[in-house]
């Protein structure tokens, strides 16, 4: 194995690592996006239920 082979192998390993990290970031971003959408939907459901109960306190707290 000469120096060029070693360098080529290191470059290949770095490329594989970068692809793996990119895929992981994309998966995390997708999970975050889904989580935000679910929390938003849950909040809207709670607000809608509270509006029908007519028990939501006034903004002034009175």
TrEMBL record:
<protein>
    <submittedName>
        <fullName>Uncharacterized protein</fullName>
    </submittedName>
</protein>
